[in-house]
Structures are given as C-alpha cells and as structure tokens.
Design goal:
Layout lengths: L5 H18 L7 H18 L14 E4 L5 H11 L38 H14 L6 E6 L6 H12 L5 E7 L2 E2 L2 E2 H4 L5 H7 L3 E6 L3 H9 L9 E6 L22 H10 L5 H6 L6
Parallel strand pairs: 1-2, 2-3, 3-7, 6-7
Antiparallel strand pairs: 4-5
Helix pairs in contact: 1-2, 1-3, 2-3, 2-8
Bound molecules: magnesium ion.
The site of magnesium ion (MG) has 7 residues, from strand 4.
Amino acid sequence: MKTLDISSLQRTSIHVREHILRMSTNGGAFTGASLSCADLLVYLYKSFLRVDPASVGNDARDLLLLSKGHDVPALYGVFAELGFIDPDRLANHLSTRDSIYWHPNREIPGVEFHSGSLGHLLSVGIGMAIDARMRKLASRVVVVVGDGELNEGSIWEACLTAAAHKVDNLIVVVDRNGFQANMRTEELIPLEPIADKFRAFGWLVHEADGHDYDDLHQTFSSLLLGCGKPNVVIAMTQRGKGVPSIAERADRWFCDFSLREVVELVDELNGRSTAELSSDTLVVR
Ligand SMILES: [Mg+2]
C-alpha cells in the first residue's frame, strides 16, 4: 500500500477535473460521469495500484480496467498528471491526429484493454486475475464499473463466475453516482439493494465515500484479498462532482461546451477562480 498524501491527491484531482472540462468541447464528452469517478481514479493510481509509467507492461504490475469506458476523460486526465502520457495530447481528444478518443484505447500507455460496450470488462478482468494467479504473480486487478452498467446481464454472469472460481485478487469498484444516461438509476431500473445483491453472489462487500480520500484509504486498506472471495467496493459518488452548476443534473451526462463555457466552468471548479488555478501548475490552452 502506498502512502496517503491527501493534499497531493486533492491537487491532482483539481487538475484532472480541469482536464475533463477541457476535453468536453470540440465534440464533447461524458463530463458528469467523468467527474464522478475522478477522485476514485486519482486515489487508485496515486495511493493503491502498483503501476506507474515505468512499469507499464511489466508482468507483476497491478491492472485497472475502466469498464465504464465513456468516462475516459477522467482516466486520461490522471494519465496526463502522472506521466503516462504527454498532457498536450489531451487537446487532441476526438481528433483524427491522435488515438485519444471516446473510449479507452490500448494504444495509450496505461490502458490495459479497450472498452466501449458496457458490461464486458469484468469478464476480461476475471481472466486477467486468473492468469496472474496461475503465473503466481502478485498482480491485483481492479475493474471500475458504472452503477447503470450493473443492468447488463453479463455483469452478473461474471459475478457468478468470479465467486465460483474464488478470484480473490479481483476488486470491482462501482461508481455509484445514481444516474444512468439521462435518468436516475432508481427511476429507470432500480438497482438497490446493490450490496445485498453482491453478497448473494458470494462477494465481499465494502462501501465508501468515493470523494473522501481518508475513507477510500481505510476501505482499500481493509480489503480481504487472497481469502477465497472477490471484493467489491461500492463507492458513493456525485455526478458532476466539483462543478456545482452541472452536478446532479440528468441533462449533463454528455456535454459539448464552447470554449467560453469551459473557462466559466473552470472558474467554478471547487470555488476557485481561473486566475488562481492557472497560476499554479495548470496549463491553460
Ligand atoms: Mg452512473
């Protein structure tokens, strides 16, 4: 387990959120959901996962699969901040001059598997986790899924399989932001009680505040890996977290902002002014 430096995590999360906003233009992005999982990804890459730009491709690294692939601006924002990719590449989002687009792409260093169609990467993660176990590697596999993604039948087939094969180096993280596309999950196809459903499938269930680094650290420190059961962390999050004018809004699941709107939203980000943000280490394009 890496050390926890909350102020460093918070600084990174602000930078990642600015990247997400800046990628939500020139064609757009799934901004609200990217903002909901930003803190999760910052925590996982900076304080939990044993992977960094130098260990990409090494056998014994930990692996993260972003099954909710439409939230890729958050993943690429983290990769830019941690040195996996050149931050300047983010400006190419959706451009034909680069391979950064819409969903995770294995051409980008750090991306372990493509994702796009929902409900598939849990099965892929099970395979990777079993492969690591068969090769006696210490790798842990983390699969981040959306709460709306739990409506996919393939998720629950995979949950049965993971429990049956005692895949205990596997961790699923549910980004429980309460929305699926432009509706609240409980209005569309109710999911609760999610924790009880995972328990019924034979999983160890943990719950955390997905924006509270202390809580996330306590939760991930208490995972029972190697105990014969897969682990799931249900992370309570807020869609649009950090940008109040788009938070919790069903109509802000996909955004294509003008450059002027992006500047205004960056102003709003965590209540700081654009000048304050820009004077630190942020690059304003
Ligand atoms: Mg959701």
